[in-house]
Specification:
Elements (H helix, E strand, L loop, with lengths): L12 H15 L11 E6 L5 H12 L3 E6 H4 L7 H11 L2 E5 L3 H10 L4 E3 L7 H13 L7 E6 L4 H9 L5 E6 L8 H9 L4 E5 L2 H5 L4 E4 L11 H7 L7 H5 L6 E4 L11 H4 L6 H20 L17
Parallel strand pairs: 1-2, 1-3, 3-4, 5-6, 5-8, 6-7, 8-9
Helix pairs in contact: 1-13, 2-13, 4-5, 6-7, 6-13, 7-8
The site of norvaline has 9 residues, from helix 7.
């Protein structure tokens, strides 16, 4: 793995396989304490439940400690420059997990740190989430080349990370979104140029879900976009994942959502609580894959997998 984990473009297909194999071991309870005596800094400029708690638990289970640094307490880029925060934390800590608004601040933080930096979500991407999502799909025996993932809604940070992972694993990714809410153009170009997956961007949710193995959605208004809430509610009104849409999908498809959900907006209670929903498995798997990422970056070689005893990337 590279020094940092900022985007899924940082991984190779082989590293993705290795990460999932390491995740299998960690999930089955094997780990040792590779972070014993070490501290991981968690810098969060935005709210979080899953990411914060799963990283805190992950570090604890690997034998280490975390220190939580809110924007209010450290003022990254305001009280102190990104450069100085990076150099300082590199003297005390073993890694930095950062949830930031601007992706370029994350890149800056990584450039000036001598320790690994992990992307815990930026306005641009959310790689830990999509790693856990693909691992969940594999857990359900659906990770086969040609897997079709239909994402209904905003072409946001989660979509960008789906596009990134489509450069590593052959899938058919279909986004159904209103045309003003398409994903980052350079990520779409780079994902298509990788030539690994089929990527379609359409307007009609019915068309997207028809042959999908996974129907995925996320909030219409992401953190930091609150002022656009009313405009977005209007733009996405036809993009709700509801019973009518799910009637057009395959009977055994999975319903996914990174959470938190705005129930009654992008998804109905009936669908998110229904039999096809795997949203809490996704959330649980954040813990397991992040342990694999932390171990891979901070203690390479500490978690050894015997490829004969664990499953490969396919289910
Ligand atoms: N899915 C996710 O990242 O959740 P939080 O915003 O609660 O961390
Ligand atoms: N797109 C959402 C994801 C939350 C986990 C946001 O950025 O708010």
């Amino acid at each position: 793995m590279t020094k940092d984990f900022l985007t899924l473009f940082d991984l190779t297909s082989e590293e993705l396989v290795g990460l999932f194999e390491r995740t299998d071991l960690l999930k089955s309870g094997q780990s040792g304490l590779p972070l014993e005596g070490k501290t991981v800094a968690l810098i969060f400029q935005k709210p979080s439940l899953r990411t914060r708690v799963s990283f805190e638990v992950a570090v604890t289970q690997l034998g280490g400690h975390t220190t939580f640094l809110s924007q209010e307490s450290i003022g990254i880029g305001t009280r102190e420059s990104v450069h100085d925060v990076a150099l300082l934390l590199s003297r005390y800590c073993t890694a930095i997990v950062a949830r930031l608004f601007e992706h370029r601040v994350l890149v800056d933080l990584a450039r000036h740190s001598t320790i690994p930096v992990i992307n815990a979500l930026t306005d641009l991407s959310h790689p830990c989430q999509v790693l856990a999502d693909l691992y969940t799909i594999r857990q359900y025996g659906k990770l086969n080349p040609g897997l079709t993932v239909a994402f209904i809604g905003d072409g946001n940070n989660v979509v960008n990370s789906w596009l990134e992972i489509s450069a590593l694993y052959p899938l058919h990714f279909i986004l159904a979104a209103p045309k003003d809410y398409y994903p980052n153009e350079s990520i779409v170009r780079r994902a298509r140029a990788a030539g690994v997956s089929k990527i379609d961007i359409v307007n009609d949710p019915m068309e997207a879900v028809r042959n999908a193995d996974v129907v995925y959605t996320d909030v219409w208004t992401s953190m930091g976009q609150e002022r656009e809430t009313e405009r977005r509610k209007k733009a996405f009104a036809g993009y709700q994942v509801n019973e009518a849409l799910m009637n057009a999908a395959l009977a055994d498809c999975l319903v996914m959502h990174c959470l938190p959900a705005h129930r009654g907006e992008e998804i109905t209670d009936g669908v998110i609580d229904g039999p096809r929903s795997v949203v809490f498995d996704q959330a649980e798997n954040r813990l397991h894959v992040q342990k694999a990422v932390l171990a891979g970056l901070c203690a390479p070689g500490a978690i050894r997998h015997d490829t004969k005893k664990v499953r490969g990337i396919s289910a």
